[in-house]
Amino acid sequence: MILQALNDYYQRRQRSSNPQDRLPAFGLEEKEISFVIEIDAKGRLVNLADTRTIEGKKKIGQRFLVPQGIKKTSGVAANLLWDTAEYVLGVDTKGKPERVVEQHAAFRARLEALPEDALRDAGIQAILAFLKNIDLKQLETLPAWPDILTTNPVMTFRLHGDVELVCQRPAIVDTTAQTIEEKPDGICLVSGIPMAIERLHPSIKGVWGAQTSGANIVSFNLDAFNSYGKSRGANAPLGKPATFAYTTALNHLLARDSRQRIQVGDASTVFWAEQANDLETALPDLFGEPPKDDPNRGTDALKVLYRAVQTGKFTNGSATDRFHVLGLSPNAARIAIRFWETASALNLAKRIACHFDDINIARAPHDPEHLSLFRLLTSLAVQGKADNIPPNLGGEVMRAILEDLPYPATLLNQAVQRNRAEQKPNYARAAIIKASLNRLIRRTHNEKEFMVMLDPTNTHPAYLLGRLFATLEKIQEEASPGLNATIRDRYYGAASSTPVAVFTTLLRLHNHHLGKLSKGRGVQMERLVGEIMGGLDDFPRILALPDQGRFALGYYHQRQAFFTKSDTPTTNNPEESK
User: Fold this and answer.
1) Where does the source fall among the domains of life (predicted)?
2) pLDDT for 571 beyond 50
3) Residues 393, 377: contact at Cβ < 8 Å?
4) Sequence-ordered list of residues with C-beta below 8 angstroms from that of 13, at least 6 positions apart, any chain
């Protein structure tokens, strides 16, 4: 199903009336080329153009349409009309001169093996002349030469005065796009037609954490993986056109500048629809962290999502369009499928909206209105660093959102543990706890769901204990303004896990603090303490981990109630806050 859906996406893009929307035709691919060697018709060097631009801390080459690269192994194998400096120029950059001689010879042999029509092309004639009389001393005088020796960059050729590369000239494109007539040796799983089966599939690049040279979804490189005497690609038979289509489509979706991918923890997630649809480019804005120059992008996308759910209509696309979401993670030289979900665009939009409803919780004015998935996950990580997000958690959370399942237990566990480590529940962790508990409650129906803001009617003991702790802290803060540390800094961990060991002491302290308040304020706060304690029979000896989450919510809700006017509730639901 995955390969079929990717193949269909490739065909959809090829049917576009806009050439800019089309993906590379059969036999071609987009490749980052760092340097372009400009030569005249007689093969003389004119210029060495550096196409790289600085992105962040790296220099990134311009992307060009070139003949599809071959799958590299430890052996010598050259690409057609483009490759690294060692192949193209025969210059040794790694201290292996004998191997470089073989590489350069392979590059020339690949050119000389072109059909007669292609060999007669002026561009090919110029390249052959250049390679025959290559002058490394002239190249060594160029400013970029030290960089070439250091990085062994990818290079190709262009005739001086031309706009396109030599490999983009019509004679070359026609040659590379031709399918080789081979005897059918299997039935393609995608097309169902007998044809020559692809033995080795092109690499998939762009999966976070995978090898930079790429990895494979379909790969059988050991005898233990083979069945019924078949080897390599014959174990999962795909014809050459289908193989090219699915790998080209997936590499396009995973590209660095793709608007149809997000990184969720260790899971690289891509998405596409059968037909062009708003959701295809909305998901990165919904789940990703908004750019600094457009901080409202996520909130705007969320408003569009809620509008689509309410009306059942999309500005671009139909509610019934089939939508696909694919999560990938690295596994040595292969790519593991973390999750795969297919649903109508409207159903998927409803599930995503449900997630944002679940994490909707009262917030302070300075808190962001839109909680991205990245912000949720980093709130669970040590020091708030993405590198410290627990393995596999991002993928499991994404799967729960897409399939409308309970969030993984690890999510709630991590939020509670992080609260204890930092001695407080923050906005993002409170949202996680509310969402996790409500999805569990929704399936057991044995408890009232938690609300966006403080719920005075919730009588769960753990929730009441959290409210009580927040109230006692507030009394202390008003009694002794400017404190560097409150009871939260010293007692939160113990109060949320072993209440009986702490609350007796805290209640004795609170009598002392009440005496420092004005008479009216003291009566008001004492009444609130009495109302909360009226719902408690006694102080539990131990709170289980889910109840520690309820404690955190009670504490968070009560704190927000102290600082939020009742007539101006603050939520993170853009539809409610209009």
Assistant:
1) Bacteria
2) no
3) yes
4) 21, 22, 23, 249, 252
